[in-house]
């Protein structure tokens, strides 16, 4: 059953109760450093899950495990119903192409224009597209992030907020079903951070994406998250909505909301 949630800025939040990601008891160590200690969580179709935690709590490692960039020592990671821990690299790549990853620094190629950055990404995965189709898709995705005028700019000519938007455009051009955001508002001013948070919600509504958002930015967490989990020393210490966790009896949990 689809449950409509309270609209935020006119955007209706939807929970379909259908997990697209199920992580079960994953463990990961680097030498004697135990980073993940039996982490279990799920993400429903169309849901934005925010992951909070102090530095070193395992947040970034957890999402890298979801796309096979880091191999777990033990546990199960079901993505679209398939346990990716049992896949070879070719099978894993078929899953990865359905997942978008927005890195902290947007990871643009500095020697390429915006058009070339987006075209390079698209042509790597859709080799049969004509030049006209590539150009149309580039223009469409730039319009969706509000930066049509930046098509011929170089990354060095872009502000931090614009780089984030172009990085997001490069993720969206492959039409992912899941998006992993790693600190999407880091280094941005308050107004630009709010704009990126609103864009995350617009993408959720328009493309029906499921997302995991790692952030230290509490306004971003409040604005974008349908649900929040908090990692502490490699385990999930708390889970709930922003409002529930803000009122937690646990002093450590409440410290995130001060």
Automatic annotation (TrEMBL):
Positions of the ABC transporter domain: 21-258
Position of the signal peptide: none
SUPFAM superfamilies cross-referenced by the UniProt entry: P-loop containing nucleoside triphosphate hydrolases (SSF52540)
Domain of life: Bacteria
UniProt keyword list: ATP-binding, Nucleotide-binding, Transport
An annotated Gene Ontology molecular function: ATP hydrolysis activity
Pfam families, per the entry: ABC_tran
PROSITE patterns for the chain: ABC_TRANSPORTER_1, ABC_TRANSPORTER_2
Statement: the UniProt record of this protein carries the keyword Cell membrane: no
Annotated InterPro entries: AAA+_ATPase (IPR003593), ABC_transporter-like_ATP-bd (IPR003439), ABC_transporter-like_CS (IPR017871), P-loop_NTPase (IPR027417)
Name of the protein in question: Phospholipid/cholesterol/gamma-HCH transport system ATP-binding protein
């Amino acid at each position: 059953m689809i449950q409509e949630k309270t609209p935020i800025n006119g955007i209706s939040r939807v929970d379909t109760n259908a997990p697209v990601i199920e992580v079960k008891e994953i463990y990961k160590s680097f030498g004697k450093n135990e980073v993940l200690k039996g982490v279990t969580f799920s993400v429903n179709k169309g849901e934005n899950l925010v992951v909070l935690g102090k530095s070193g709590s395992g947040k970034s490692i957890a999402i890298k495990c979801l796309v096979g960039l880091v191999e777990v020592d033990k546990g199960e990671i079901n993505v679209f119903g398939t346990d990716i821990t049992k896949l070879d690299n070719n099978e894993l790549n078929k899953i990865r192409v359905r997942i978008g990853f927005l890195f902290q620094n947007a990871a643009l190629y500095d020697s390429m224009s915006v058009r070339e950055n987006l075209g390079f990404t698209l042509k790597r995965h859709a080799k049969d597209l004509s030049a006209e189709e590539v150009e149309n898709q580039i223009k469409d995705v730039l319009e969706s992030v509000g930066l049509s005028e930046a098509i011929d700019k170089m990354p060095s000519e872009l502000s931090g907020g614009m780089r984030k938007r172009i990085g997001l455009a490069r993720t969206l051009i492959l039409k992912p079903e899941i998006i992993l955001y790693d600190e999407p508002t880091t280094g941005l001013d308050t107004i630009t951070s709010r704009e990126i948070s609103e864009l995350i919600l617009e993408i959720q509504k328009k493309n029906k994406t499921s997302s995991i958002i790692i952030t230290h930015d509490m306004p971003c967490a409040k604005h974008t998250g349908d649900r929040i989990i908090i990692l502490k020393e490699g385990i999930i210490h708390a889970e709930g909505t922003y409002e529930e966790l803000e009122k937690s009896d646990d002093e450590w949990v409440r410290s995130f909301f001060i």
